[in-house]
Batch of 2 targets.
Target 1
Amino acid sequence: MSYPHLSDTAISKLELSDQERIQHIKKPRWIGYTRAREILGKLEELLTHPVQPRMPNMLIVGETNNGKTMLVEKFREKHPASENPTGEAVKIPVLYIQAPPGPDERGIYNAILTRLFEGNPRSESTDAKRDRVVAVLRRVSLGLVMIDELHHLMAGAYVKQRNCLNVLKYLGNELRVPIVGIGTAEAVRAIQTDPQLANRFTPEVLNKWTRNAEFARLMSSFERVLPLREPSQLSKSPLADRILDMSSGTIGEMSTLLNMAAIHAIKAGEERITVSMLERCGYVPPTQRKQVAATL
Ligand SMILES: Nc1ncnc2c1ncn2[C@@H]1O[C@H](COP(=O)(O)OP(=O)(O)OP(=O)(O)O)[C@@H](O)[C@H]1O
Ligand SMILES: [Mg+2]
């Protein structure tokens, strides 16, 4: 049998039991797409940017569930921390943290110190923490700082939000490394209110998906990695339109929908995704979830 619609890895999975194939489908996977590759390229440029007083920063913006964290995860994988053979300090080319749940300066420092396996004594003053963060980060050959869920810092009292934005400015200036914020549109709006930050942060948007050639390529990629024996033709009408429509155009929803449909196709013995599989696999579209919430 030949399976021109599948990748070699997916073909090798066809020998597994149905249950094992289903387990494989549920595992996280990365599919490259043009916009992701573009942003990854720009992140590489930031990482190797010559040190200058005013380092360029980036803001990766997009809807929830549209691949922001996966993208920066991919970048981190390429630049893991390592022991420094010539010294005792570790090398951390890319430091990734999640912003604390609210606009809390100490929370930012705690997140950084925790990442670096440093203690977080409660009695330590904020000033002392700030100094310690800068001192530790100077020792680890830092290349770039990533702060995910940046919009968390923009919730709550205005003064505290300002304070957090100033922390970003301070860290960037002190450490002379690019800062990459990752968040929703809320984060962009907040940065725009501060002229000094607005001109340092370049937004890179991960737009929702629409019906175009790139979307068709994405659908073909999904088809290649889902180990089903029959071709589904996900990139063609009517499937492509239906998938886009049901998922509201985020890659996370598309992935969930296609996984559920593929699992359903295996269990039903159909071995391909059809429109009726999409409808019968138990996937609840985001629009319907909102309707349910409204009735509670
Ligand atoms: N490149 C990709 N290839 C395959 N699946 C992907 C890719 N990027 C994202 N996904 C799918 O989308 C889901 C959501 O992605 P991710 O967690 O990166 O979203 P996000 O934009 O960070 O959302 P949030 O703002 O809620 O944190 C992932 O769990 C994964 O299933
Ligand atoms: Mg995320």
Target 2
Amino acid sequence: MSLLPPSFRSKYRHPDPANGVDEVVEFRAFTHGLQPETVPAMMEAFTEDWRRFGVDAWNEVPNHWRPDSDDRVGWWSLPTYLADEFVAPLLGVDPGTCILQPHVHWTVQCLLSAPEVAARGTEIVVTDGEFPSVLHSVQQWSDLIDVQPRIVPSQPDGRPDVDAILDAIGPDTAMTAISHVGFTTGALLPDDDVRALVRATHRHEGLFLLDGYHSASTMPLSLTDLDMDVFTGGLLKEASGSAGNAFVYLRDGLDITPRLTGWFGDADPFGFNTQPRPNDDVRRRFLGGTTSVASMYHAVEGVDILLDAGLENVREHSLALSSRAIEHAERLGLSLRSPRAEQQRSAMILIEVENAHALCEYLKTKGVYTDSRKDAYLRMAPFVWNTKAEVDRAFDIIGDAISNGEHLDAPILSTGGPVT
Ligand SMILES: Cc1ncc(COP(=O)(O)O)c(C=O)c1O
């Protein structure tokens, strides 16, 4: 399995080393990606566009994203322009089907506010392993609309119970909303399972929503082939787009009118009419009030890097490094909580270790950044900016720590709260 060249690292800006180590190894792509090297210039471009053009920037700014093209862009068009140029290829779908969103929470809230969802049935099928932006939203809306959550328990290892979800889908299903990768398990739902769930949902005329936060940007996707209705995710993590940048894909022809649509998504926003009118461009109906422009200047710099590398190569690199990490873990006698099989493996792996918090803190003192869950799992995602040598170095340290117990006395270095 081939790796991206070590020079790939230089496409990203790396954190400052601390605690006397020379270099930091960042394995937390599942939380917040490293900063692409072009981001400082893009943020400068934002401040300059604001200064130079002021209000007129809403209509036109230089096309920093495609400098060689004649496409005209303005702040008004950025949510759809950047989605067409960068997010659609990232998801392998046609232009015109995606739009930038502030976060997944907003997208799910918009969907739930649409009468076309409630018209399809009285239940929304989810598992207890969904991220709160889905799981909590479904429960909150059940107080407002005549649609109840049908929460399917996960298996003891935290992975979705596909048979139980299939059993739960039926004539009452308005929507099925499932994670493509479990955020606590790192388990990727294989295409055959997704296809079976979509087919069952469609048989009962329900909508299918896939939360692809941890799959998009890490592998090629086949949403059209999967007959997906709605796919959502964010650019914060492996896509290195930072906060404020998420997206939604809506199947071509899906007519949906979120009651949360704001004036930015109206058919005639500057008519300031007394009645709202749904935009003909369905994806724009997922806009609320004034969009947060600054975040869009750093949204797709990382996507550009990944597309340039090729998503097949990104996936190969990620699998090659996680395979090496798994081999090291097994050599040390550690078990894997996340799947070993490649077709079920995401970019992140979880390794079972005792005193995982202490080990995570100890690794930090050595410049190796991972995270830990429930004091029982070490979570890591060796990604495109990581090398084989970094994985080896991390496991040398883990091996030493486990054999001599040094991590149990490690100082606590974390300054912030928990990370997602
Ligand atoms: C599966 C999944 N969905 C969604 C999110 C983020 O949701 P939001 O964009 O609403 O913060 C995360 C964050 O870690 C996640 O793991």
